[in-house]
Design brief:
The chain is of the alpha/beta class. Helices cover 40% and strands 19% of the residues. Helix 3 links the parallel strand 1 and strand 2. The termini are far apart. The relative contact order is 0.16. The protein binds S-adenosylmethionine (SAM).
């Protein structure tokens, strides 16, 4: 029996070359910042870490230096193929397509980060992942949901934020030039057609509680966008701080 063709969605967008970064410098600055943020979250040397929806993870090797094992989990096939090529010989990086991969042992992860992914997942799709995330977390392990879109963000605030980051990191001209293509390009078209999933903080916290997590909103978001949100969650059946997991999310 032939299955119905699936309508293209966000994963298809991330599986193709895109112009979400205004230039290569923007892309590099972004991934360097994400690597720094993950490093700041490591609970201990030798931690087992999984980066879900890691994208190009350009500085994963820097994170892996301080991990026992770093799983780069990326569902977009061409992006994953490039990660596999880049890290084929790395002793501590394993590239996977799915958190359910048996190489990620149950109750093994000290840190599971999900940065800038929730907006591309339907609510039900994200909810389906939560039992799996919970099973893979070690006692005392921490799930970090970062760059989560709140119910409303303003285009003016988003634009000002991009330009501020660009000015600070030396790609202001490219950012000014890139604004037009961000406004009318494929991302904008898909955003109008598919929308982005947004979460009210109390809604996300309630969902996490229903799935057996004790969660809280972090005072600041990871990454460059202060208008988005970060949440930290632990298994609710574990006392805080087990296995030395201490989240310093500055
Ligand atoms: C904005 S990128 C985030 C990359 C990286 N975490 C970062 O912060 O730069 C969004 C990621 O979400 C992933 N993604 C989108 N839809 C997905 C889906 N349905 N299932 C799993 N991953 C998905 C994409 O493959 C992509 O890597």
């Amino acid at each position: 029996m032939r299955s119905e063709p699936r309508a293209p969605g966000w994963l298809d967008f991330w599986s193709r070359p895109h112009r979400i970064y205004v230039n290569d410098r923007h892309r590099r600055v972004h991934y360097a910042r994400i690597a720094d943020e993950i490093l700041a979250l490591l609970p201990r040397p030798g931690a087992r870490v999984l980066d879900f929806g890691c994208g190009e993870a350009l500085e994963a090797h820097r994170v892996a230096e301080r991990c026992g094992r770093l799983f780069l989990c990326e569902a977009a096939e061409p992006v994953r193929a490039e990660l596999e090529r880049r890290y084929a010989d790395h002793p501590r990086i394993t590239v996977i397509a799915d958190v359910a991969d048996p190489r990620v042992a149950e109750e093994s992860l000290d840190l599971l980060v999900v940065v800038s992914v929730l907006q591309y997942l339907a609510r039900a799709e994200f909810e389906d992942l939560l039992p799996l995330f919970r099973r893979k977390l070690a006692p005392g392990g921490v799930l970090v949901l970062a760059d989560v879109l709140p119910p409303a963000t303003s285009v003016v605030a988003d634009t000002a934020n991009l330009l501020r980051t660009a000015a600070r990191h030396g790609f202001l001209l490219a950012a000014l030039g890139g604004l037009a293509s961000l406004a009318v390009g494929e991302y904008a078209r898909l955003r109008r057609r598919l929308g982005l999933t947004r979460w009210a903080p109390e809604e996300l916290l309630a969902l996490l509680r229903r799935h057996g997590f004790a969660a809280e909103r972090n005072p600041r978001n990871l990454g460059f966008d202060p208008n988005r949100m970060t949440f930290l969650a632990r298994r609710a059946d574990q006392p805080r701080g087990v296995a030395g997991a201490k989240v310093q999310c500055r």
